[in-house]
Automatic annotation (TrEMBL):
Identification of the protein by name: Alanine--glyoxylate aminotransferase
Record's keyword annotation contains Transferase: yes
UniProt cross-references to Pfam families, sorted A to Z: Aminotran_5 (PF00266)
Organism, scientific name: Solemya pervernicosa gill symbiont
Similarity annotation: Belongs to the class-V pyridoxal-phosphate-dependent aminotransferase family.
Region described as Disordered: spans on this chain: 1-20
């Protein structure tokens, strides 16, 4: 085989992430690479930090993108806040709460699990019972928007419980940032991590994080060194700190940061509340069409994420066959289920640049055709008709 330049196909990404990337963001990545300590680049870093603070709705000075994917943002929070022997209450209602447990244990801590059924929101009463029963717990960790199920939990209520019981809070907002309300300061969240490849419509590979003053005081008062040199915030802030003078820590992914800067600029131009409203509007149109196809949502309406729609696969329909036909015949990607939901659900994303009327129509018409060809008993054309009623009303 002779290697040649790789040209990927043009896909429409409506899975759980990555999402479609704005052409403006792709163009930004093509700009000239300059040094990571160049004064011009440092000035851009400061702008990027300010726009991240806007996206998170925080004034936290420790707000920055970790130079690695969302999983590294998660590890950054746990590695800095959890020491050997610490007790951490972890609320799990999907795959990513399980990853939090892994992080606690790898830091030498003890994870006290509060488990809820997948597809439901975290039960605040159960969390409070766990905090009462474990007064020595130092951290409460939870997923705001559970990507594996499409369920959204009450981050404000959970943060209030953490403070009531003298705990720090760690929140996974990988799928919520930019797509659904997230108010870090107002809700009193302490350590928050996210990703760039979902509702920010940037490329994968960076993880925005923000830490409260309470969290930073805890980090400064640690009895042991942070177990990860690369993720040690005491060192990283020498590079992502204030002012023109920066200390070398690592060579930043320069062109990827250009892309994030552009994606945050797009978010600010649209307006955060407008972005939330857009995701909700197109979700309602997609929902109408999916229900017209006879598909049932996994999550109850009150706890449902607009940007991640998990629906049950109809009986007698093969998961992989449908996704394969969508990819090969329509160049459309939707997501499979994870863990106990594998083979039972599809996860359909409407994130960032992908949350638009064209994609809603493409997804519904493609599903209509594919499911009809496999013998599903829905009414042909009803999905688009139902969606159009919502689109025209908005």
């Amino acid at each position: 085989m002779t290697e040649r330049t790789f040209h990927p196909p043009q896909r429409t990404l409506m899975g759980p992430g990555p999402s479609d990337v704005s052409p403006r963001v792709l163009e930004a990545m093509c700009r000239p690479t300059i040094g990571h300590l160049d004064p011009v680049f440092v000035a851009m870093m400061d702008e990027l930090k300010g726009m991240l603070q806007y996206a998170f709705q925080t004034n936290n000075q420790m707000t920055m993108p970790v130079s690695a994917p969302g999983s590294a943002g998660m590890e950054s929070c746990f590695a800095n806040l959890v020491e050997a022997g610490d007790q951490v209450v972890v609320a799990q209602n999907g795959v990513f709460g399980g990853r939090m447990k892994e992080n606690v244990e790898r830091c030498g801590g003890t994870a006290i699990m509060v488990e809820d059924e997948w597809g439901t929101a975290i039960d605040l009463n159960k969390v409070e019972d766990a905090l009462k029963a474990n007064p020595d717990a130092k951290v409460l960790a939870f997923v705001h928007a559970e990507t594996s199920t499409g369920a959204q939990s009450d981050a404000k209520g959970l943060a209030e419980l953490a403070r009531k019981y003298n705990c720090l809070s760690i929140a996974d907002t990988v799928t919520s940032l930019g797509g659904t309300p997230l108010l870090v300061d107002e809700w009193g969240l302490d350590a928050v991590y996210s990703g760039t490849q979902k509702c920010l419509s940037c490329t994968p590979g960076l993880s925005p994080v923000t830490f409260s003053e309470r969290a930073l005081e805890h980090i400064k008062g640690r009895e042991t060194k942070v177990q990860s040199w690369f993720l040690d915030l005491n060192l990283v802030m020498g590079y992502w700190g204030e002012g023109a003078k920066r200390a070398y820590h690592h060579t930043a992914p320069i062109n990827a940061l250009y892309a994030l800067h552009e994606s945050l600029l797009i978010l600010k131009e649209e307006g955060l509340e407008n972005s939330w409203a857009r995701h909700k509007h197109y979700h309602m149109a997609l929902r109408a069409g999916l229900e017209a196809l006879g598909l049932e949502f996994v999550v109850a309406e009150a706890d449902r994420l607009p940007q991640l729609n998990a629906v049950k696969i109809p009986e007698g329909i093969a998961d992989a066959v449908v996704r394969g036909k969508l990819l090969n015949d329509y160049s459309l990607e939707i997501g499979a289920g994870l863990g106990p939901m594998a083979g039972k659900v599809w996860r359909i994303g409407l994130m960032g640049h992908a949350a638009n009327a064209k994609n809603v129509r493409l997804c519904l018409s493609a599903l209509d055709n594919v499911l009809s060809g496999l013998g599903a008993g829905h009414s042909r054309g009803a999905a688009i008709e139902a969606a159009e009623k919502v689109l025209s009303a908005g």
